[in-house]
Amino acid sequence: MNVMGDMANLFGTGRFAQPSGQLSGQEEATDEAQEAADEAAEEVRLRLAVDGGDVEAMSVLGAMLLRRGDFDGAEAHLRAATAAGDRAAANNLGVLLHQRGYADEAAGWWRIAAVAGSAAAAHALGRHFRERGDEPAAEYWLCQSAEQGHVLGAYALADLLEHRGDDTGSERWMRAAAERGHREAAYRLARTLDRRAGQDGDDKAAAHAADEAEQWYRQAAARGHRRGALHLGTILEKRGELKEAGRWYLTSAKDGEARAACALGFLLRDAGDTESAAVWWLRAAQDGDGNAANALGALHAERGETQTAERWYRAAMDAGDDNGAYNLGLLCAEQGRTAQAEQWYRRAAYAGHREASNALAILLLRAGDESGAEPWFSKAAEAGSVDAAFNLGILHAGRGEERAALRWYERAAAAGHTEAALQVGMARLRGGDEREAERFLRCAAGGGSAEAAYRLATVLDARRPPAPAHELGEPAQDKSECEEWYERAASQGHRRAQVRVGMLAAARGDVVEAARWYREAAEAGSRNGAFNLGLLLAREGSEPEAVVWWRRAADAGHGRAALRLALVCARRGELAEGQRWADLAVSLGPREVGERAARLRDALRQELSA
Length: 610
Prior knowledge:
Elements: H1 7-11, H2 25-51, H3 55-68, H4 71-83, H5 87-99, H6 103-115, H7 119-131, H8 135-147, H9 151-164, H10 167-179, H11 183-199, H12 203-222, H13 226-238, H14 242-254, H15 258-270, H16 274-286, H17 290-302, H18 306-318, H19 323-334, H20 338-350, H21 354-366, H22 370-382, H23 386-398, H24 402-414, H25 418-430, H26 434-446, H27 450-463, H28 481-491, H29 495-507, H30 511-523, H31 527-539, H32 543-555, H33 559-572, H34 575-588, H35 591-609
Helix pairs in contact: 2-3, 3-4, 3-5, 4-5, 5-6, 6-7, 7-8, 7-9, 8-9, 9-10, 10-11, 11-12, 12-13, 13-14, 14-15, 15-16, 16-17, 17-18, 17-19, 18-19, 19-20, 20-21, 21-22, 22-23, 23-24, 24-25, 25-26, 26-27, 27-28, 28-29, 29-30, 30-31, 31-32, 32-33, 33-34, 33-35, 34-35
C-alpha cells in the first residue's frame, strides 16, 4: 500500500510492527499462526471497546483495518474517532482518503491532525503541497514535522531545500534525518560531503569532509543501502583495504547493485580468481552494466574467443558504454579488419571517446591520410589524451614545425609522458638551456627511458671534474651519479651507454667489468663496443680474439678498427691484406686516422713493389 508517511507513525501504534529477527521452518509457521491468533483476539477486544464508546479503540481498530486493506470498515471507525478529536485517527483518515484518490479531502484531515500536533500528518500534508507545486506551503508543513523530530519530515524538508538550492538548510535537515536512522539521508549526506572533499582547496578541510563522508557511507551501508555499500567499498579499495572492500561490494552486489558486482569482479580478477570474476561480471552485465560487459569481452578476447568477445563488446555498446565500440575497434584492428576497425573507432570517437579518437588518427596516419588524422589527434589531445598530444608533437616535428611540436611535447610531458619529456629535454639541450634539459631528462629517465638516462648521464658527465688517475692497489673510487645513470641505461640495453660504462670501468682498472659491458654492446651491434673490446683483449695478450672484434667493427664502418687490422697485418707480413684494410681506414676516417692509414698504405705499396 503506497502511503504517505512511515507506517509506525501512520497507524499510531507499534503493535503492528513485524519482528526483525529471521525465523525458519516450523518455528516461523508457529510464530505466524500465533501472531494471527493474537491479532484476531486483539480485534475482538477492540471491537468490544468500540461498542462501549472507547475513542482510542476506534482509532486503533480503524488503523488495523486500514493496514489490512479494509477501507470501508476502517473509514467508519476513523471518522468516528476523528469526530471525537483523535489526531491519529484524523491522520489515518487522510491516508485512507488519499489511497482512494480523494487527495484534497485527505489534505483537509491531515491539516486538522497537523494543527493538533501530529508530526506524521504535517509530513503528509507537506508532501501533498509539494506534489502540487506549492513549495512555500510544503516547506511550512515539512518544517513543522521536522522540528517535532519526524525523521521522514526532516528528510523530505532536506530534499525540498536541496531542490531550491539551499545547501546549508538541506545539509542541516539531511544530517538530522541521518542521525535519526534514515539510511537514504545518510547516503545523500555522504555524497554531499564526498563532493565537498573533492572541491575543497583546503587539504585539512577536504580530509575532514572525506572522513565524515566515509562514516555516513558506512552507516547507510550498515542499514542496507546498496549504493552506500558500493561507495564504501570504493573508498576502502582506493585505500588498499581490499578484503573489507570486497565484503561491502559483495553485500551491495547481492542486493542487486550491478556496479558493485562489476567492481567485485575486478577485485577477484586482480587476486587471480578469473573464474569467480567472470561470474560477477556476467551478473552485472546481465543487469545492464556496460563496464562488466567490456570486462567479459576482454576476458574472452584474451582466451582467443573473439566471437564471444565481440558479442559482449556489442552488449556494452548497447548499454551505452562507448568503450564497447572502442574495444570492437581494437579487436578488428588486431585481426587485420582495418575497415571495420575504422568504423568502430569513428563511432566511439564521435561519442567523445578520446582514446578512440587517437586510435582512429593513428589508423588514418598509417594509411597515409595525414590531413584526416590531425583533427582526430587534436580532438583526443584537447580531451586529455596524453598519447594524442605526443603524437601531435611527432606529426609537427615530421613537418619541421619545431615550435608546434615542442608545445605538444611539453603538454604530454606535463601529464607524465616519458618519451615526450625526453623530446623536450633534447630540445632544451639543443637550445642551450642545460638546467631545464636536465629537469625533463630526469623525468623521462625516472619514467624508464634508456635514452633519457643516457642523455642525462652525458650532461652530468660533462660537468664533473676529471677523476684522478687510478693506481694499482688503490681502492676504486665510488661511482658518480652520471655513472649510475649510464649503468641504468646500459642495463636497459642502450649500446652507447654500455660502451661508456665499459670505458669508466676500464678507467677504474676493472678490466673484467669493462670487458663485460664492451662485449654486451658489441654483440648488440655496437662497432665502438667491438673496437674497445678488441683493444682490451689486445692489451691482455689475446690478439687473435681482438682481431675478430676489430673485423666486426671495421665491417660496420669503424675506421680505427680498420687501421688496427692494417697494422696487425703489416706486422705479420700480410702486406696485401694490410693494404686493403688501410684503404678502408682511409675511406672511413676520421681525418687523423685517414692520414695515418694513407701513410701506412703507401709504405705497404712500396714494400710490395720493391
